[in-house]
Amino acid sequence: MPLSSGQTGFRRRAAEVSLAAGPALFLAVLVVWPLVAVLVRSLEGVGPERVVEVLGRGSVRSVMAFTVGQALLSTVLTLALGLPVARVVARYRFPGVRVLRALVVVPFVLPTVVVAAAFAALFERYAPGWRDSLVPVLAAHVFFNLAVVVRVVGGYWAGADRRLDEAAQVLGAGPWQVFRSVTVARLGPVLAGSAVLVFLFTFTSFGIIRILGGPGRATIETEIFRYAVNRTEFDVAAVLAALQLVVVLGLASVSAAFQRRISRAQRGRRRPTAQPVGEGGWPARLWLAGALSIVTVVIVVPVAVLVQGSLRVGDRYGFDNYRRLFTTGDLLPVSAARALATSLQYALVAAVVASVVGVVAAVAVTGGSPLARPLDVLTLVPLGVSAVTLGFGYLVAFTVFDLRRSVWLVPVSHAVIGLPFVLAAVVPALRSIDPRLREVAATLGAGGVAVRRLVDWPLVRGAAVTGAGFSAAVSLGEFGATSFLSRGGDSFTAPLAVARLVSQPGAALRGQALALSVVIGVVVAFVAALIEWRRSDRVTLL
Amino acid sequence: MSRTERAGAGSVAAGSAGVESVGVESVGVQSVGTGLAGDGAGLSIRGVTVAFGEVRAVDEVSLEVAPGETVAVVGPSGSGKSTLLRAIAGLEPLVAGEIRAGGRSLAGVPVPHRDLGLMFQDHALFPHLDVAGNVAFGLRMKRWPAQRQRARVADLLELVGLAGLEHRAVHELSGGEAQRVALARALAPEPALLMLDEPFGSLDRVLREQLTAEVRRLLQELGQTALHVTHDQGEAFALADRVAVLAAGRLVQVGEPAELWRRPVTRFVAEFLGHPNLWPATVGADGRVTVAGVDLGAMSAGVGAGVGPGSEVTVVVPVTALAPAAAVAGGGTGAGGGTGALEVEVVAAGFAQGRYRVTGRWLGDDDGAPVEVVWEADEAPAAGERVRLAVRSDRVWPLDG
């Protein structure tokens, strides 16, 4: 019997598997191996009793309690403040809506050290009484993660079919009933998904805690660093990292499941139906006013204080802090400007590597390969696994060939951390391509490669550039892994410089830290704003 | 037998067996010199089966499409018509059967080398290419030189009435324009077979009818062999030389539109084509048919072919076989015998496309089959009124079994 597709089916399957093999190998070497090395290290020699002993220590327990507690608080606060903004961005059209959207998203890509510097300056100057409380940490977390809620929830909200609400109203549901039975029911998985993400990010918060946490406020993340680097108790660090890893992998798989549900829910959704604020009457104006106040207090004010602080020299204002970035002091191994140049180079390398690996992985993940699902989960791991754990893993794993001295290690670790952003942009773009386009192309004579080149690639190119931009931004601000992997000198990056400057007493150093933060922030914000400006209303995870 | 007079507009007289039953090979009578002509060209499907797990979406379908002929496959959704089309395109694997197009077997031929044109509902135009880029896609795949591509694109756009729109972005096109571009794109590489999958489904009725007529004319002019899949029998009748009815993956009947409509072989086909009057009847001697005790006269089908004297059958009475006779005033008794006139009580009357459509029920038979008739008069009878209907018994057709 003539079976036309049996043979070609097998060949296609083989091609799909080999396509998945590349990114899978990349992630195996650069993510799985270091993490496994950490796990092995935590059990090796010391034995399970030691693990139990470490976890049973009062100090470790209180660290765990604090880590979970601050993450929960941050998540609740972020959701509470993010939802009104999400609603306004999704539902209303008004002059400046794009500016508002960009304002909300930019913080997410701002380097943690920049944000930490901003909030340190803010509280020291205007609320010194709160400087040593938990408030600066929470505020910084909200500042960061507002974007997650607004993008994920708002994006879904914008595409949600408002006729469902209307249908419910016609069926006699009051506003509260509509909200409960339609809005919440549909929004449920999206809300939960974004909450899990925010929790994940704040659970693994490092730079913010290091700089703003103050004495007695340590998370698992900062403790890993402290034990590994400051106290060189590698085994304790390894136990903590292993614990961190288990929690994070669990949360990441929950998040992946939510993401699949969310992207399924988005299939066949309608065009966004935003309504001009003018038509919404006073409730719309109230919502808008609320959203604007939230964004102003949470985002605009800290940034303004950061800029103001960077310009203040003693009692007057000037550019002295910026000029000093070009000088080499005792505190930094190189000038701040030189560190920034290094960061830019790394960002370029990271963006190229992440987007190439990411696009191949995205194609493999969306294909029918048996490796698709495992690869999908694998690609999300770097998003969840803390950069600190990853950096620590590199130190533990790459002792062979002395790889950890390689100058490539820092940019490659940045590429790994940026990879999920490329996938978050490209995978939905690939999934949203109407399969009939490929079928039509095939009937018109296009083979597999031609379909990829002439149909798929042009339709995901924009998303790939977006992902590359995000990974460049992430690289520019990366702090956790770099803290472990930087050898100083040639691999001393701008965020390391900020962290070192900001943690020292002295107005001059503080001013320099703020100035460098502003420069990094401007570069990153520029990249992010470009991305935000040119991308459509397509909803992606981030 | 009243054979359909099809316009001899250069098209093909295929399936000349009138009502064809399933599996009968229709002989592709060759005519127009279109360049596609050739021995064994066109499309030949034999025993094609496509299965999704246990479900046979297409079940041993055999169908011949002569060169230059347009055949429409109609069926309700889920009948397997789109699957059949995808199987021909090579997008679904066959479990059994053989497909030949353009004179060669398609077994083992990958999709890109099948030399087919495919046109989907909602056009499926490449959003990143302009109109010219879409139309030229197949030519590009065949590595035509750029200049010939341009000329061909211009010709095709002219043909579909979109001359000069080469550089229009796809999202700026109206629904009808987009569908024309999709047609031009499918036709550009001169495919051996053009396949249309619900091509006009997303358009409004007026546009749909207009475009159907245009495509019909175009296919005839080009002598293009085409297979058209739709759930809309009206569209199929308007576009195709022959129509094939598919039910649950099986081909039930193939025939020219008029034949199919006049002589459906099963209740399913009759209902799918929209015949409202399917009445239980008794066939008497000489092929005279009696419905509810009323002798309607002789059917043209006569006696035979499984319909012997005295047999109980279901007859199809096309709405065109019924016309108002004189209205009956007051409460008349049952109808007289042998007049070919029925007396029914009006249940409702509707107005559509310039005519009344009256539904009624038999007198003295409360649970009898409904009666529907096109009422060619200035005013429709009111509900409850009794009317007499004249029946043209030569248009009445008995169903098999």
Task: Tell me about this structure.
- The complex is a heterodimer of chains A (542) and B (401).
- By secondary structure, chain A is mainly α.
- Chain A has a single domain (6-312, 319-534), classed as MetI-like (MetI-like fold, Orthogonal Bundle), CATH 1.10.3720.
- Chain A contains 22 helices and 4 strands.
- Chain A has helices at 6-43, 47-56, 58-91, 97-109, 112-126, 135-159, 162-170, 175-203, 207-213, 220-230, 234-266, 277-311, 320-323, 336-366, 372-384, 387-397, 409-431, 435-443, 448-477, 480-485, 494-502, 507-534; strands at residues 92-93, 275-276, 312-313, 316-317.
- A two-stranded parallel sheet of chain A has the order 1-2.
- In chain A, a hairpin with a 2-residue loop joins strand 3 and strand 4.
- In chain A, helix 3 crosses helix 8, helix 5 (112-126) crosses helix 6 (135-159) and helix 17 crosses helix 19.
- The longest helix of chain A is centred in the N-terminal third of the chain and has 38 residues, at 6-43.
- The N and C termini of chain A lie far apart (50 Å).
- Mean pLDDT of chain A is 82; it is low at 1-7 and 536-542.
- With 401 residues, chain B is α+β, with helices and mostly antiparallel strands.
- Among the domains of chain B are: 43-115 and 191-271, Rossmann fold (3-Layer(aba) Sandwich); 275-398, no CATH class.
- Helix content of chain B is 21%, strand content 29%.
- In chain B, the strands form 4 sheets. A 6-stranded mixed beta sheet of chain B has the order 6-7-8-3-9-10, with helices on both faces. Chain B has a 5-stranded antiparallel beta sheet with strand order 13-12-11-14-20.
- The longest helix of chain B is centred in the middle third of the chain and has 18 residues, at 205-222.
- The radius of gyration of chain B is 24 Å and the shape is elongated.
- In chain B, 45% of the residues are buried.
- The model of chain B is unreliable at 1-39 and 327-339 (pLDDT under 50).
- Chains A and B meet through helix 1, helix 18 and helix 19 of A and strand 6 and helix 3 of B.
